[in-house]
Amino acid sequence: MDLNILWFILVTVLFIGFFFLEGFDYGVGILLPFLGQDDTERRVIINSIGPVWDGNEVWLITAGGAAFAAFPAWYATLFSGFYMALFLILLALIVRGVAFEFRSSDENPRWRSFWDWMIFGGSLVSALLWGVAVTNLLQGVPIDAQMEYVGSFWDLLSPYTLAGGLTTLLVFTLHGALFLTLKTEGAMVERARGAAVKIGMLAIPVALLLAVLTYLQTDLFTKTGAAIAFVGTALFLVLAWLLLRRGRYGWSFVSSGLTIVFFTVAMFWGLFPRVMVSNLNPEWSLTIYNASSSPYTLKIMTVVALVMVPIVLLYQGWTYWVFRRRVSTKHLHY
């Protein structure tokens, strides 16, 4: 295995971690105005992710940094071509982060309600647009021979990419509802369960629609490993819903997490060895070789990653261990 492949795998792993952790994060934010019936309940919901939401976003920063350093041409084309979409995601993340900090600085109900809806909006836009972005990478975008994106913002929207966005929105919301069944107490658990059952019933047919469109509009299913991973995505999504119906919340959460893991693996495996597909000419696609840094740069980065990645993993694991208990109404920070 050469360093180009190693760094493609590392970027994939970083996005898996980001989507898994930030997935339930977004889901909790989307459900906030609907499951919390009063201010105390909404504070409980926010506190379920309060100590970890900003740490989860470290995975995105690390993935972006790794892509920039290992595949600078990919990073340049991606950020120039997806400029508006990524700007909207960044704006949504900023609004969401500000809302977490500002919400409880004033006891006025209108003030708190306003920031609750900002958390909802920021979470919803982010969950939707990540699916649109990932499916665009696989479907292909207009890239010319100079590795430059020559389309517009509207070229990123198609029935296929919108189905991708709707799928990630529903799966992340399901993931968040299951997370709340594990982190809250009393009536909130039953309310989160009811929401998860309904969202799961919507997510399964939408995910199947995405699978059909993926078969028709991309070459993902020509790669055996990617096809198996995509089938695994559907199986774990159905399993999560069935386990939820039986009250097995912990295993259902694990299954919804594996749904996200297998979906991300399928998408990146479908791309490999490309990192962006050109729908103008397959020869103009960006790959892990024509978009990469020099071998010396990759070698230095590998040494740094071997030292830093375990430290980050240990720190985040310790954070989740410290805040592992269910959230009660006695110690609410947000």
From TrEMBL:
Specify the protein's topology with respect to the membrane.
Answer: Multi-pass membrane protein
Cellular component, GO, one term:
plasma membrane
Sorted alphabetically, which InterPro entries does this protein's record hold?
Answer: Cyt-d_oxidase_su2
The terms under GO molecular function for this entry are: electron transfer activity; metal ion binding; oxidoreductase activity, acting on diphenols and related substances as donors, oxygen as acceptor
GO biological process entries: aerobic electron transport chain
* Entry annotated with the keyword Calcium: no
UniProt family annotation: Belongs to the cytochrome ubiquinol oxidase subunit 2 family.
Protein name per its UniProtKB record: Cytochrome d ubiquinol oxidase, subunit II
